[in-house]
Amino acid sequence: MMSDTRQILALNRFDNARMDGLDDGLRARLARREATFGAASVLFYERPLELVRGHGAYLYDAAANQYLDMYNNVPSVGHCHPHVVSAIAAQAARLNIHTRYLTRPVEEYAVRLLGHFPAPLTNLAMTCTGSESNDLALRIATAVTGRRGFIVTRAAYHGNTAAVAAISPSSFSGTAVPPHVRLIAAPQADGDVAGRFTAGLRAAIAGLEEAGIGFAALVVDSIFSSDGIFADPAGFLAPALEAVREAGGLFIADEVQPGFGRTGGGLWGFARHGIIPDIVTMGKPMGNGFPMGGVVTRPEFLARFCEETGYFNTFGGNPVAAAAGDAVLDVIEEEGLIANAASTGGLLKQGLEALRAEFPAIGGIRGAGLFIGLDFISRDSGAPDPRMASHVINALKDKFILIGAAGLYGHTLKIRPPLCFAPAHAARFLESLREVLRAS
Question: Which fold has domain 82-334?
Fold first, then answer.
């Protein structure tokens, strides 16, 4: 097996040193961007795209080409959904203010959102981003447990604040794992999934305790998206939750990517496992691209945190964000998007299994609903093949389909379209993927 792991930002990243074949206008555009954004500039694809608008499952570039979007989970109910756009515009025209006044849109949204959580998860703190949500979750866990050690999977990504970047090993670039963090293997796709994952967790907890750091929380993206997408068997996280509770720690479910119906089994990824986390974090899909996030937890946990910190968030939970979030819930319910994720995702997965029987370069296929991972492997050794993944991603772009990669080695095709993705979209993708593989 390969040992060359990949940083998350290196997956399908445009290389500024490789401008051969680009026209003078695009070269000048890229040089200007690099001069203004500096080292923080990150673009996708061997030839970067200029996008000008979106609608539903489609994006359009400056040359009016239409692309089927199978990568962007931020516009969860579809790009520029008219109901969400209208709700944002109407509230922005009426009132947008910070959170230290009474405002009905915010209060009513909180009640509605919390109605989708099991007791005792009855308190909501609203933020502006998923990173901010996870940062707050870490602070709550530290306050509640009195300990500061966190456990995550080896290719996890949970955000980009200082605290959250420390538990996002897929962002590390030659830096050591912080001493208060322990990494465990992602769930394996065969055998005793629950047993192996829980054994790794227990060993990491013991390591934190032996080091005198103490165990505060396990933080998991409940579909392990950055690790390569691991969803099954449903329920495998239940023994891990038991081990966390036995050790006096908290279980933090990061629902930024799997949340809001994506897995097709309910609104939340953790629900597939029949568990109730201690803290749930949300972000990106919550407002269909409008900057908003949230943390849901037990009242006593939030009270303990607030005893130590006078917490407030100026823009987290502003009325426009609440209007966006409320509209997203409307669309999910009215358009039956959870059921669509299950049915269309099932059709897509069946089609991918048929392709695997045809092409030996396809390895594992995993996922739930409209969140599927497809591994590319060496035909000779069975080792991860990130070069093949990169080739397929760029070849699909040439066929006007946008998609990305994931996994510890960057060899997993990350299939994550908007929830309005339909059977006709799936058929187009499957045929295009077949054509790319036949030509490879």
Answer: Aspartate Aminotransferase; domain 2 (3.40.640)
Would you state the pLDDT for residue 3?
A: 44
Whole-angstrom distance, CA of residue 364 vs CA of residue 79: 30
- pLDDT tens digit string along 103-139? 999 999 999 999 999 999 999 999 999 999 999 999 9
**Distance from C-alpha of 43 to C-alpha of 58, rounded to nearest angstrom:** 19
Residue 33 has pLDDT above 50, yes or no: yes
Question: What is the CB neighbour count within 10 angstroms for residue 311?
Answer: 12
pLDDT in tens, 317-337: 999 999 999 999 999 999 999
CA distance 419 to 413: 18
CA distance 392 to 388: 6
Domain ranges of the chain: 49-77+336-438, 82-334
Match 């479910």 to its residue by tokens: 253
Q: Which residue, 331, 321, 159, 343, is CA-closest to 252?
A: 159
Q: What span, in angstroms and rounded, lies between the C-alpha atoms of 336 and 49?
A: 32
Q: Provide the β-strand partners of residue 181.
A: 150
Task: Say if CB 72 and CB 316 are below 8 A apart.
Answer: no
Tokens of 301: 């946990």
Residues 364 and 373 sit within 8 Å (Cβ to Cβ): yes
**Quick one: tokens of 118?**
């099991």
pLDDT at 1: 37
How far apart (Å, rounded) are the C-alpha atoms in residues 67 and 186? 32
Residues 6 or more apart in contact with residue 293 via CB below 8 angstroms? 126, 127, 128, 129, 130, 131, 132, 133, 256, 281, 282, 283, 284, 286, 316
Q: Is the peptide bond before 169 cis (omega within 30 degrees of 0)?
A: no
Asked if 263 and 369 touch (Cβ cutoff 8 Å), the reply is yes
Say whether 73 sits in a helix, a strand or coil.
coil
Decide the pairing of beta strands 293-297 and 401-402: unpaired
Alpha-carbon distances of 434 from 44, 110, 298, 359, 396, rounded to whole Å: 23, 45, 48, 9, 10
Q: What is the pTM of this model?
A: 0.94
Under CATH, to which class is 49-77+336-438 assigned? alpha beta
Among 237, 292, 287, 229, smallest CA distance to 263 is for 229
What whole-number distance in Å separates Cα of residue 126 and Cα of residue 107?
11
